[in-house]
């Protein structure tokens, strides 16, 4: 951590600095970081126990860490995966729409890739087990700085003061996005943990990971997640959905 990270600074200035820092990572570094994040989270109890998980589509232009390996693995494990869709009506908040391999994505607001928001594939945010939350900056106490639009804070406002209840909000980021301290606003929703390729923070840190195979290798299903997503479809799933 640099000295600049520990000094108080205005949110806009800090946001610009951290965004520039993550955009400076080249494609090779981004791919390596995504693989390390996948290996760190695939055995974590929060992921193993979750059945309904919200992911996001990373923006290469922004340098966001890519959770698609974990999403692909989750689908093959038979978990239900959801992606955020920005509402066009009402306040700036998110819908969550079920995603399956080979579903088409289209550009939404701000050019973000998202699925078509079919009503029968939507899920209430309260019904999710685990949410992977993108961020610009974070601290070890679970405070998060986003892009400044407040989508996640509005969507999960029901979590304020109820951190011990699901869904678990898990920030994912590069280690270079960590700062010493962020000053939360009254409307901010605290994360229960943050995962980077190098470490776990918050409630995540004290939980153990599942052991590997006796020979030290990863299970075959985990190895499959690293292959091309077109090789096979998602695991068995039923058609029952939870509507908003």
Q: Descriptors for this entry?
A:
single chain, 244 residues, alpha/beta, 8-stranded mixed β-sheet, two-stranded antiparallel sheet, 7 helices, 12 strands, 17% strand, globular, disordered C terminus
Mind sketching the topology for me?
Layout: H1 3-6, H2 11-23, H3 27-41, H4 45-49, E1 52-54, H5 68-76, E2 80-86, E3 94-99, E4 106-107, E5 113-114, E6 122-123, E7 130-133, E8 137-138, E9 144-145, H6 151-155, E10 168-172, E11 193-195, E12 200-202, H7 220-224
Instruction: Output the CATH topology.
Output: Rossmann fold
Radius of gyration, in Å, reads 17 Å
Strand order of the largest sheet: 6-3-2-1-7-10-11-12
Count of spatially separate domains = 1
**Average of pLDDT:** 81
SS strand fraction: 15-25%
Which second-level CATH architecture applies? 3-Layer(aba) Sandwich
* Biggest sheet character: 8 strands, mixed
Low-confidence parts:
208-219, 221-244
Give the termini separation: 42 Å
**CATH class category:** Alpha Beta
Helicity, in percent? Answer: 10-25%
In the CATH hierarchy, what is the superfamily?
NagB/RpiA/CoA transferase-like
Query: What structural class do the secondary elements suggest?
Result: alpha/beta
Total number of helices: 7
